[in-house]
Specification:
Helix content: 10-25%
Strand content: over 45%
Distance between the termini: 121 Å
CATH class of the largest domain: Mainly Beta
Length: 354
Amino acid sequence: MRLNRFFSAYLIIACGLLLHTGCQEQAKPAKESDTGLPSKKEVEVKPSSLQPRIMFERLVQNFGEVPPNTVNTGEIRLTNTGEAPLKITKLGKCCGVVAKLDKDKTEYAPGESGFVKIEWKSGPEPGVFARDLTVHSNDRKRPEMTLTVKAKIVLRITWEPERLKLFLGVDNAGCPKVTIHSLDDRPFSITGFKSTGECITADYDSSVEATKFMLEPKVDTKKLDKNLAGRISVGVTHPDGDEAIILFDVQAKYSIDQPVILIFNAEPKKPVVRKFSIFNNYGGDCEIESVSSKGGIVAAKFLKQRKTDKGYELEVAITPPAADGKTRFTDVLSVNFKDGESLLVTFSGYYAKR
């Protein structure tokens, strides 16, 4: 009897152990050998090693010598040398240059090529033209690549002088003759003559063609007095240069030896005497009538003038304004002459530190 009870207990314990072991086995993760499926670690997606690669046949588009005022176009081939699709995400802009992708195509398969088309217009002045534009893509190695556009703007016409120095009170303002001629011996004609304020004119016959022209400018001194600086534009029909630009300025009647007058350690409301020299560039006298403040910030008083070898030495009393917590003051001094002319002088003052 006891033996039967012992045997029954043994069977119950054994079944319990088998059941516990089965639960533990179910709790363990399945292995590939058990289920035929990959493990969780092996299911993770790894990044592809296939990448796009952008390649340009050249990084510099050199147009060489170009004439002024002309539209210039070119293109640079690009190729996807990688093993994944190449995407152009952005085509940068630069001043004076229009760049776009051929047929607006932005995606290229491996081995496929396309073009970056470039267009720009040269200016009227001779010189070197250089611009950079950036191409952005999904190429991880080179996400940004810079293309350079360069050229040399060359005129096939030339003129003398390139700048006119004119003088008031002189016959025809002392304006010389202007010569325009072609450098490649190609004939051209004059199509126009314009100046700032229409103060300078010249006669010409647009029906005449030649390789060289000599113009005799005529100056209206009354108009010139109101346009002391400007430019002359002469239109021509030469294919490699349609305009000659000549700058002009008028020699001021009066000038000063100090472009800016400085006052240090100034005291509010306390006059400071300053000396500076005035010159008459036309050789006459400097008859000063008064001195005044243009900005009304300081009080200015003309004291006296003394003739020197080169001009006149002038003494002026300048009274700084109240400080009001400021450390400096600025104003413009107007030296007024009896002939109606005036000379503007800039000055800056610094208060004494307390």
